[in-house]
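I am writing to request your help with a piece of structural work I have in hand. A protein sequence and the structure tokens that stand for its backbone fold form the material at issue. Please examine both parts with care and let me know of anything in them that strikes you as inconsistent. The record follows directly beneath this note.
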Amino acid sequence: MPPIDLIARVQDIRAKLERDFYRNEYQFQLDLFQTVGRGYDGHLYFWPDLLTGYIAFEKDRRLAIVSVSEDGIEVPKIYLYDEVVANTPRSAVSRINGLEATSYLDDLHKAYCQFADRDACYNILLFAHAGLVFESYGDFQGLGLGEVVDKGYIYPGSNTSLLFENGTSLVLDNYAVVTKSLESVADGKSPDVKSSRRSFKTSLPKSPYGAAASKIVTTPTAIPGYPKPVLTSSDGAIHGYYLASPSASDTAVLVVRSFVPTSQKEFQKVAEDFISKARNDGKTKIILDFTSNTGGFTFSAIDLYGQFFPKTPVQDFHRVRRTAAFDILAKIGSNEAIVPDLNNISNSDAIDRYRQPFNYRYDLNKDRRNFNNLGSMLYGPRYQGDNYTSIKRLDYKAPYLSDNGTIWSEGIEITGYDSRTNFTQPFPASSILLLTDGTCSSACFTIAKSLISQGVKSIVFGGRPHLNKTQSLGGARSLRAWSFEEIRSAALKFSEFATEEEKKLLDLYQELPLQRSTFAGVNIGDLMFEEDVKAGTGVSGQMRRVDADCRLFYTASMVRDIREIWEAAAARRWGGGKCAVGGFEHD
């Protein structure tokens, strides 16, 4: 994706406001939304209230599209999903809204995308089996410009036209859907505008490792788009299968759609039981399907990693870009007189104050030892004019990582630590295959990069119609993300312990951005690659590529049946099958 100077662009928007450049509120909010969106980072987002809270756009009927190759190797073309699924005669889409189809789709997400990888952005426009859980058929249904299921936020024009290679065409009207009434709104001071502003909660985040990049939808027990599982969690976040073909009958598949389970304990148990059952049933290989997984709870992801590699620590190196406000919060939050040590905490509010990234006692240093003092955590190297903390890692032996029902209990202990140290590695790295569509982000990225570091190979499906390498992990690379509400909460909670000068700075974090947005947040923990930590390059993981070992395109049979995807992946990894790009050496 092209680079952008966000600070300069926001300053430009401010200058435009001061000279009354925008004709209306919608134009201003659209410019702001697209500017932040061009950061192409799922942990950086600002959804203005008028743009994303009142009106969305959709087509007058479902118009899902797929990218289909004849054999998974030949460059694919765009087709209508319904025609492919029905296995009726079909013709490829040659033009959309008068432009060459693939170019149109590639350009669509330059205005907004949560991934820095263009092939990942391309994939989320298309149908994916994992999307059926949310009744979604791809972002193209919503014109690719928003994250409401099958709806978009940016006005796409009055219709969408498709021209097919056989000369036929299809034109669908685009409609606005009013999601909240504007009937009595005359201006920004109208009662309805005031009452629609979000109420502000002052509680600190329970854990800074939660999911912030994507809105979470509760799923039913049934799993649309998938066959009957061998095992599944009640919410469908994790489920397992066995392959049936003679050539892959020794292969299991563990699908992890999301790391935001209803119960982290159940998530852990389903993974543990499925791995054990697969081994007992004679399965010697396993595919980890992380398709459409944009992250979630870090501890659930890291525990799953521990179930496969219980003796090798996860790669959780991270740092925080310091600001004056962060330094103030670090000074206050690390003061034992204000925030007691864990052993002296007796209420949930105190534990919430302790479990913050600016408390030097909360994390470990890069060697997994305690920081000696605030300075050893706070004052890390300076790169490209920016100040950073020292490299930090998570503490998996902390008391809050337990299921003992105490006030700080996270609900699980991490496999490989404490009472779960008796686990053994269930499969060698050569018998594990990571399967993605490039959208793996956040907590998903953390576990996937750690698996790859242990020698696990990866295969990626889809992407733009070219024969170059594509990334298996194209999403956000940060270990922590905070909503604006959580940032405001921290500033408010700790300002009572600040000096008058410090309060002036913390008071800059006001409620207005919260009131005028439906969803807003930022990354506060850059994930770092181990090789960059050792070399001292200072380069964030967000700036590094993680190319897949093998790339395949989807075929029509894969669109109809997800098991065809798994069978194709197994055939390439262990059966000597040919990849469209790359390949696997014999282990």
In short: The domain at 231-316+419-476+545-582 is CATH 3.90.226.10 (2-enoyl-CoA Hydratase; Chain A, domain 1). Confidence is low (pLDDT under 50) at residues 191-200, 207-220. The chain is about 30% helix and 15% strand.
